Amino acid sequence: MSRARTAIRVVGVAALVVVAAVLPHFISDYHALEWATVGTYFIALLGLNVLTGYSGQISLGHGAFMAVGGYTSAILMAHHGVRDLWTIPLAGLVAGGAGLLFGLPALRLSGLYLALATFAIAVAFPALVKKFEHFTGGSTGLILNLPKAPGGIHLSSNDWLYYLSWGIGGVLLALGALLARSRVGRSFRAIRDSEVAAASSGVSPALYKTLAFGVSAFYAGIAGSLVAIETAYVNPQTFPITLSLLLLVGVAVGGLGSLVGCIFGAALIEFLPIYAQNISKQAPSVIQGLILIGVMLILPGGVAGLGRLLENRAFRP
Fewer CB within 10 Å: N-end or C-end of the chain? Predict the structure, then answer.
């Protein structure tokens, strides 16, 4: 039974990889850019799922860590002429370091208080950007070179961005799956279920909660860097406060603790505002809210919860 379930999951993941590989051949150049953005959100949700889904820490400031990564890439490209690809890992490391630094004082907070503290970061970040406008461009922002595929790769810029975002997303998905099955991942889940029990088993809540913030922020920094590269422009509005809220919604829709489910959450973040605008140009926010309420009522455990339910019914003796 266990082998059959594993085989089905492997086949499902393989099917998603095949679809991702051939999709640009069946969609327009514009839609390729849309799905590149979905891949970027997917990476951010992977990181947030490590923090919220695995270690149980709620963050409403993940958009700020994306902004750290985005501005790191933008500053390196605009002021120092660094090739866009080289800025991606650097952006992840800078954002990861910021996550570790925030994780230390956040150890004294939990639940709603931690969520409010992280939300304060998202609120304060635009003011910091404007204060150091010599580096960040302030409200005007920074204009970057349009992305293009490296020499020898004959792809349109949007197709290149698609394969870049989903290629990085695939690698980070694999790393996230390995992390979930490692001792670190088991420690995250132990802390999520009960800090007292985890501590009595030799797990250090302080160490692993801080590490979860660092890993999560690293993923967010990578995603933010890709946002900067895809848009070729960054300013405070590139990473609005609402982005942090949407990311948490995306994790919930995909399913807490489900890495593959993040794909569905990322697609929702990208396409829900577009379709809500098409349905009602006067009140798109109302339509978005109603759709989200309906989704959570129908899928209280997210898409991953529905998948587990179907799987259990299929293998019920």
Answer: C
